[in-house]
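Supplementary notes (optional reading)

For those who missed the lab, this is the record we used. Protein: Carboxy-S-adenosyl-L-methionine synthase. Length: 252 residues.
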Amino acid sequence: MSNKPRQPLQETDRLFATERNPEDFRFDASVARVFPDMIRRSVPGYTTIIPMIEVITEQYVQAGSNCYDLGCSLGASTLAMRHGISFDDCSLVGVDNSQAMIERCEHYIALDDSSLPVSLRCEDIMDTELSNASVTTLNFTLQFVPPEQRAALLARIATATRPGGVLILSEKIRFESDEEQETQTRLHHEFKRANGYSDLEISQKRSAIEQVLIPESLNDHRTRLQQAGFDQVIVWYQCFNFVSMLAIKSAA
């Protein structure tokens, strides 16, 4: 009999399907159980972004370097990075401040067929020590960091990044134009409806998350990344109000 742990039970996201008291969104055990279904049905392009993280990692990873997935949740982007790393002397670190997420992530890491070791840390990414990095991922994580702390985090990542290294930053964004914001939001809600969410679920999830997920404009992100020390910022993917950027530190 195999000693590998069984895959964690994945449930359908019904957290907001019935009337509930307003409360802030938390990445607790109830969210961890439904997270794969929730993010697939809520984030347009997520199933494209994850495999492309592997492609980008393969292109930019450097021998003898560290790679970080900050805000790793259940480890989808961690595993993508793991399969993109071709050097045995690289270190891969996944960080999340939710113990429930880390516990389930450990199971997914154990079930994966790559032999590259992964170090998982349950801690605040603001406290994570960063050094000698070639690839770092913030996959829909920065938007949950208080806005006043974001510049400092990106500056630490840029300082820790080797010349020629990158940061993959995926975010929900807001738009400068009210008209575009309304259009993109409406299309995003239609995406959710097409994936089976009811109007009640969409409304309650929005109310729960709006105080903890603070989106910014694409220009805000680009300016901050450049001020942090990255030389080039490329939007490589966008679907409605969700984007993924590649921030590159020029080679010496």
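If you only remember one thing from this example: The first strand starts at residue 66 and ends at 70.
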